[in-house]
Each structure stands twice: as C-alpha cells, then as structure tokens.
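Lab channel / #folding
Pinned by the channel admin:
"Please post every new chain as: sequence first, then the structure tokens as a reply. Keep commentary short and put observations after the output so the thread stays searchable."

First post following the new format, from NK:
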Amino acid sequence: MKKGLFAIALSVFILSGCATSTYSVGTDFPIERASEIEKGKTTSEQLAQMFGQPYSKSVVSESQEKWLYFYSAGTSKAQSYIVTMDVKTTGSQKTLDVLVKDGVVANYTVTQSQTPTTIKVN
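Reply from TO:
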C-alpha cells in the first residue's frame, strides 16, 4: 500500500513542473525625458543625445523620417500540472514614436504600459 502511494506521489511530482524565463526587446531609454521634446525645435541630433539611437528608423518621404524607440521587458512563468498548465507573464513596454522633418521633430507620441497576463491551458 505504501509503495503504491509513493509511486503515485512520485508520478505526480515528475509530471508537474515549472519554468521561468525573462525577456527584453530593444534598448531601454529614459521615457520621462519625452516631456523635454519641443515640436518644431528639437533637432534629430538632440533627440539622439537624449535617447540614444532609435530601435528603428524609416523613411516616410524625402524630408521625413520616423524614429521609433521601443523597449519591452518582463518575466514569463509556466506551471505545469498533470492535465493543465498556467502561464503568467508580467512586464512593461514603452514606445516613443517620433516624426522628424528636415532634421527637426515635427510630432511624437509616447506610450507606456504594464503587461500582466495569465493563460490557463486545459
């Protein structure tokens, strides 16, 4: 009887488990400095001094470029049970999207969010 219970407990332990992973995408940048950007005044050189090189640059037209600063980081944890699994993700994401026209900031948007997510798989 004791061997049977031990075997069942051992099977449950072996068939369940967990894994944790951390991730980051992009280069972190000081998003709080976005309030220092002045449309029509801040130059692309000043932008690069404030935030570093962007995650990406795209040509919009002959005189316009789109600079994208992006950073996302967090942790994912998966807990596996015999017949179900829980995946929990926590982290944050921030984006600074800048339209540069003739070397000067024409417009920009800033977004920042937290990303708590839980998924149950049966």
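NK: The radius of gyration is 23 Å.
TO: also worth noting, Residues 5-15 have pLDDT under 50 and may be disordered.
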